[in-house]
Amino acid sequence: MEELGRHGVTMLLKVDHERFGSGQRPWTLVLSGPGLGDLRALHADFRTFQEALEYCRDRLRGLPGEWEWLDGYSWG
Question: What is the per-residue pLDDT for 75?
């Protein structure tokens, strides 16, 4: 997350205990900041922590810019 900040991305990752076990997606991921370019912000909910991280990595890799450094980090 520190490296995301250095690349102009603010990341908020939240788990909501009230959504566990109710069939809802308890993990919320919000990305914003100038590092996202014209996209400006992303918001999505997930069933698992791993899904949230993989979504983050995949979305960032699809943006213009140098995101190859993401492959150097463990995502699970």
Answer: 64
All structural domains of the chain with their residue ranges: 2-72
What are the start-end ranges of the H helices in the chain?
Answer: 2-6, 49-61
The pTM is what? 0.84
How much is the pLDDT for 54?
92
**CA distance readout (Å), 42 to 2, 22, 31:** 18, 24, 5
Determine which of 19-23, 50-54, 66-70, 71-75 has the lowest per-residue pLDDT on average: 71-75
**Contact 28/13 with Cβ under 8 angstroms?**
yes
Q: Which helix (H) or strand (E) holds 50?
A: helix 49-61
Handedness of CA 47, 48, 52, 54 (dihedral sign): negative
Q: How far apart are CA 14 and CA 26, in angstroms?
A: 8
